[in-house]
Amino acid sequence: MRKLEYLLLLTGVVFVAATNSPVQQQQQSLSTPSRPNVIFILTDDQDVHLDSLNYMPFVQKHLVDKGTSYRSHYCTTSVCCPSRVTLWTGKLAHNTNVTDVNPPYAVGGYPKFISQGFNDNYLPVWLQQAHYNTYYTGKLFNVHTVDNYDSPFPAGFTGTDFLLDPFTYDYLNSTFQRDKEKPQSYEGEYLTDVLTQKAYRLLDEAVHAANPFFLTIAPIAPHCNVFMNGTGLDKNPVFSFSAPIPAKRHEHLFEGVKVPRTESFNPDELSGANWIRTLKKQNESNVEYNDYFYRSRLRALQAVDELVDGLFARLHQHNLLDNTYVVYSSDNGYHIGQHRMQPGKSCGYEEDINVPLIIRGPGVAENASTDVVTTHTDLAPTFLQLLGIPLRVDFDGAAIPLTPREIEAALETRQEHVNVEYWGFAAGEGIYDFDLSAYNNTYKALRITGKGYNLYYAVWCNNEHELYDMNEERSIANPIKTDPHQMHNLLLDKEEATILMHHPIPKLVARLDALLLVLKSCKGASCVEPWRALHPRGGVDTLADALSARYDRFYELEQPRVRFNECERGFLLHSEGPQFESAGKMFRDGLPWYEWV
């Protein structure tokens, strides 16, 4: 990309070429009858680090063994509605302003999605514009309710059967709403089994239609069971949380199975920062309950596993396996007992942000895995690219490499960072109380993985900082104790060595902080290539590049630091602290400080 074009993208100016490249022309050839189909399975709160995928034999058989697993796939906001809006729009939460699931800042989810104008500008709409039929069943957004489902209807769908609040998370008392019909209650029926039949019906409709299809199936498992006496639109609704409920045929499975006892599980020593450092060690009864909660999650996933098996049986029956991509993921991850936390999500630790992503389909390697860094912001661009639909210039992500050749190239060229952000409180979902200081759970964080380094850096709204070296093993490049479970905050534990990546930790932190400053307010191209925002003349593409002594003054003396002015439960600019500027005091005549000082 030419420098002028790139700078226009950084500043939000849309650049449209007068002619399309051969690749773009090929993507725009939409008339071919061999255009592929997509089935997207999106679970709710499914973990990677608690091993849930290992208890799903049909997912292993049909997806893991026949597709590619993306081990370094991340959500960027670890709670359902902001994460789902990011997934469907290709935009980070600070650009959608859907940042929570509760009022006042999120207005519950679906109403905020509507008020921000996304009902006319998200993936299903773009797919229909490209002559794809689109189908959806299951959970769409929070506070998509029995009262507001038609004001307006979600746009962009050929056929739907949505779960609706306040019954979305009630495994034995669900309510679905099909197409333009009135909501229908399924009291006493097991939710995932009801959804399974709806998914099969929509697949049959899709198969017999003239156009290729994109079918999304969004079960709530393994989310906890929630009884609601109202929704986020009501005054003082009361929500009652309990363990997920499995189907009766699965309720006795996995007796004796426990939460993996990693170093971070209910540790003897405090870890983390902010409210997490105030949590008490869980007693025996609490731990036993959390093990039961964990087994309940595994049991609830068994009906999802059966759904996957039934989908592949039907794809085989319709002779569609060779022309259909099947993508499996979750909106966010989950913790149970890590860092002494009660069951839940909403934090930036690995359990909460590293989520499953498995892709099977034409050209995708079988029984393969990769560590290329991918995020939920990349999914909308990925879907458009694999379906031959031109990409949008305002995406905050980039298409995921799918073929072995693309993945091999991406190991050298793809971004190494994940932007993580959150606003609002962190709710515990078990029967035990959580610390009320979790109300201030607003933070910005950065996950970065490159050759010889594997780091997590975070700034909380109370301006506490965290840095973890997450490499699995010691090496010459990382001589200090490594910390894959994020137990030793290098910015808190003064006894730790002060050298990391052959450099003093303050020097490293200056680079991480500058990168986070760009990402916390980035848009479009600067979210994908943030080093280009800092170094528009090139020469810096990785954290390792930025550590050159040439840039010491630029990073260590002249860059503003990431900080919050105030803790808020939503995205309020006056509380967000310094914002990155690509001109003015950091640049002059298009040159960065270190070029003209």
Major beta-sheet overview: 10 strands, mixed
Give the domain tally.
Answer: 2
Give me the count of strands. Answer: 22
Helical residue percent?
A: 25-40%
Q: Tell me the name of the CATH class of the largest domain.
A: Alpha Beta
Silhouette:
globular
Uncertain residue segments: 1-33, 583-597
Number of helices in the DSSP assignment:
18
Main-sheet strand order equals: 7-6-5-4-8-1-11-12-2-13
What percentage of the residues does DSSP assign to strands (E)?
Answer: 15-25%
Tell me what you see in this structure:
- This protein is an alpha/beta fold and 597 residues long.
- The chain folds into 2 domains: 38-417, 3-Layer(aba) Sandwich (Alkaline Phosphatase, subunit A); 433-596, no CATH class.
- It contains 18 helices and 22 strands.
- It has helices spanning 3-10, 22-27, 57-64, 80-89, 93-96, 110-115, 123-129, 191-208, 284-317, 350-353, 379-386, 404-413, 505-519, 525-528, 530-534, 543-546, 552-558, 593-596, and strands at 37-43, 68-70, 73-74, 133-138, 159-163, 173-178, 184-187, 213-218, 225-228, 239-242, 324-330, 357-360, 368-370, 374-375, 417-422, 443-450, 453-460, 465-469, 499-500, 503-504, 587-588, 591-592.
- The strands form 6 sheets. Strands 7-6-5-4-8-1-11-12-2-13 form a 10-stranded mixed beta sheet, with helices on both faces. The chain has a 4-stranded antiparallel beta sheet with strand order 15-16-17-18, covered by helices on one side. Strands 3-14 form a two-stranded parallel sheet.
- Helix 3 packs across helix 9 (284-317) and helix 8 (191-208) packs parallel to helix 9.
- The two termini are 28 Å apart.
